[in-house]
From TrEMBL:
An example molecular function term from Gene Ontology annotations: glycosyltransferase activity
InterPro entries named among the record's database cross-references: Exostosin, Exostosin_GT47
Family: Belongs to the glycosyltransferase 47 family.
Entry keyword set: Glycosyltransferase, Golgi apparatus, Signal-anchor, Transferase, Transmembrane
Keyword Glycoprotein: no
Subcellular location: Golgi apparatus membrane
Domain (Exostosin GT47) ranges: 103-415
Main localization (coarse): Golgi
Pfam family, one: Exostosin_GT47
GO cellular component, one term: Golgi membrane
Record-given protein name: Glycosyltransferase
Record membrane topology: Single-pass type II membrane protein
Length: 463
């Protein structure tokens, strides 16, 4: 580039202006500098393992971190964790161990005291049935070490309004929206905590699918707060790096947990349910008369025998979990409890845990993910998060298929070697504790896993 001396600058009207030429050169340099920085940013991302449906092994655990300090036994009565607790069922075993221990020591949640427990607030409607997860969380948070009565030491703030209780009292969806809006507006006007972050350090919990809709009346709740929901579908506004997938668990379980019984599992695959989605219609039409897959077009009638449906889980290798009218279903956690490897025919977004990245790296990571999906890396439009999928490597204990694979379902399952099936089954037994609710809560159970998800997010989004 030619350096133009001040004495050479001419402001006469004849010819092209050297000043314009100088401005053009500076603009060119600025553009090249921007492109260079952009290239370097993308290149730095490539040096770290990108989010991918295929996980390439686990982190090496240093020998000094194999076991936890046995003197730290304030863990709800759970036994001391050993190396087996941090096996390859986790994306980052060592990061999980260290962060979990830090969470137990430091994490605090403040529960807003407003609202009459006899109406829609504070307490659960019940802790049984297919929406038991919501009830258990409302109960567990009050029983746990994480609750604080001092809002100034809180990391997060819990908005204790239960749409399940509203549903039980016959409240219409329209009225639910108004009740939620008025309650949150009251908290905003009464307390200073929401306005400090515009609600990004607040969260609510709902398992009923109508609960997600009830909160949609407040745009700030959708945009800013952490939503812990049983219906984590991306096509209804679920934001994976902000929101949390709540496992839908049908408790109490009708029968004891299965596992370590591979020799008894002689049926290749099993599904029984209503044909209330396209994938279920196809599944029933293609496979209901097959001799190796136990596929029923409707739910099993109780008149056929006591707990026939549940007992079929015990003798099956792979339990098919297709999406229904809603993406959430207790069928996946039923399969895990009874030791039947879940196979899902809806696409799930898998990513490495965000605990490996800094905040800025996490933001860039999700940008890259979004671009990847947009440009066709993923071929299905209806996809959702499985519970704890940024912590657990689901491919170590489940079979994840695309919907188009339903036509080749039997061959895909038969092609899985017996040794791989045994490995999947053994890993499934290891994660059963993560999909079980207890009162009071127990270390590593569903409640603690949800709290861990919240702990990972409590410092990610701030204004």
């Amino acid at each position: 580039m030619t350096i133009v001396k001040p004495s050479q600058l001419s402001f006469s009207g004849g010819g092209s202006s050297p000043l314009c030429s100088l401005k053009g050169s500076l603009l060119t340099v600025a553009i090249l500098t921007f492109l260079s920085l952009f290239y370097l940013s993308l290149n730095s991302l490539r040096t770290s393992p990108p989010p991918s449906p295929i996980v390439v092994g686990s982190i090496h655990v240093p020998q000094t971190f194999v076991k936890e300090d046995k003197t730290d036994n304030d863990d709800d009565g759970a036994e001391t964790a050993t190396e087996d607790n941090y096996s390859d069922v986790y994306h980052s075993p060592e990061a999980f161990r260290l962060n979990y221990a830090e969470m137990e020591k430091r994490f605090k949640v403040y529960i807003y005291p407003d609202g009459d427990p006899n109406t829609f607030y504070q307490t659960p409607r019940k802790v049984t049935g297919k929406y038991a997860s919501e009830g258990y969380f409302f109960q567990n948070i009050r029983e746990s070490r994480f609750r604080t009565l001092d809002p100034d030491e809180a990391d997060l703030f819990f908005i204790p309004i239960s749409c399940h209780k509203m549903r039980g009292k016959g409240t219409s969806y329209e009225n639910m929206t108004v009740i939620v809006q008025n309650y949150v507006d009251g908290l905003i006007s009464k307390y200073p905590y929401w306005n400090r972050t515009l609600g990004s350090d607040h969260f609510f919990v709902t398992c009923h699918d109508v609960g997600v809709r009830a909160f949609e009346g407040s745009p700030l709740l959708i945009k800013n707060t952490i939503r812990v929901v049983c219906s984590p579908s991306y096509n209804v506004g679920f934001i994976p790096h902000k929101d949390v997938a709540l496992p839908q668990v049908l408790q109490p379980f009708a029968l004891p947990a299965g596992g370590n019984d591979v020799e008894n599992r002689t049926t290749l695959g099993f599904w029984a349910g209503h044909r209330n989605s396209k994938i279920r219609v196809i599944l029933a039409r293609v496979w209901e008369n097959d001799t190796e897959l136990d596929i029923s077009n409707n739910r099993i009638n109780r008149a056929t025998g006591h707990l026939v449906y549940q007992k079929r889980f015990y003798r099956t290798k792979f339990c098919i979990c297709p999406g229904g009218s809603q993406v959430n279903s207790a069928r996946i956690t039923d399969s895990i409890h009874y030791g039947c490897i879940p196979g899902t025919c809806s696409l799930i977004l898998f990513m490495h845990s965000s605990e490996r990245y800094t905040n800025k790296e996490t933001e860039l990571m999700y940008l890259v993910i979004s671009l990847a999906f947009y440009f066709g890396t993923v071929i299905l439009s209806d996809y959702y998060d499985l519970p704890f999928n940024d912590i657990l490597n689901w491919r170590k204990f489940a079979v994840v298929l695309k919907e188009q694979d339903v036509y080749n379902l039997k061959q895909i399952l038969k092609n899985i070697p017996h040794s791989e099936f045994v490995s999947l089954h053994n890993n499934l037994v290891k994660v059963q504790k993560h999909f079980q609710w207890n009162s009071p809560p127990v270390k590593f159970d569903a409640f603690h896993m949800i709290m861990y998800e919240l702990w990972l997010r409590h410092h990610v989004i701030k204004y």
